[in-house]
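Quick one: structure for this chain?
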Amino acid sequence: MSSEQPVEQPNDNDEELQSLGQSATAESPDQPLEDLVAPDQLGDSPAAPSDPGSELALEAAPAGLAIGPFAGAAFAVLAVLIGWALLEAFHPVFAVSPEFISDNPSAEQSLALAEAEVQVSLYNSVLVLACAGALLAGLLAVGEGLARRSMTMMIAGFIGCALAGAALGGLAGWVGHSVYQSAKLPGQATIDLAGTMVVQMTMLAALGAGVGLTLGSLAGEAGSLCTRIIAGALAGVLAGLVGPFATANLLPAAQTEQVVPRGDFAALLWLGTTGLLLGLIVPGMKLRRKKS
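Got it. Here's what it folds into:
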């Protein structure tokens, strides 16, 4: 007795699903995504090529100074206060020897006294300007190191810039004293306000250029160094122009005709004007070249 089993007939739907699965398996493993999906359907478009000119401009940008004008002004004011305290305590350091002073001096003694006074004035001028240059350059260097968050620059910059500032400040004092002696007419002990402004502008321009030179050396770029020198000289000229005029009007009893002004708060006004302008202009001035 034989038994016949029914043969299953293939379903049309199963054959279609199987054929679709085989075709998808055969095409998808080795085929990249870019061949399956159109470029305009991708989520991220290809990155545009960078502009070589912009990269060169970024690489050529000067490092410059990290300290800003307001921070520079703050450190300059601190230097001014220290310098004024030293002036009030010790100035003048050098004085004419009592042997040159006489109640009834002869012509030779008067000439010797005048020469001694000139020499003493030179020493005091050089010393005061050297201290001012050291304090301004040194403390501005501390501000630069603080802005860069570099303890090494704060310490080494203060020492190096203070020493260089003292040398260049002393040179500025010598310049101011020489111009002062040249501006005096024969037989005159002092000069007028216009002559005082010329002396102060020349001397403080030299001081400012020295401070700009020392601070600009920390920038590590020649263009920035030249900018700081120019900025310091301009700040010094402006201080020499404003300082004597302001002192003569605000403090009439002050001796503004001296290389280092004397009188109540005269030295503070002189140092304050100079230090504030240097602190603002030297770090803040920027000279840019026009792109061709």
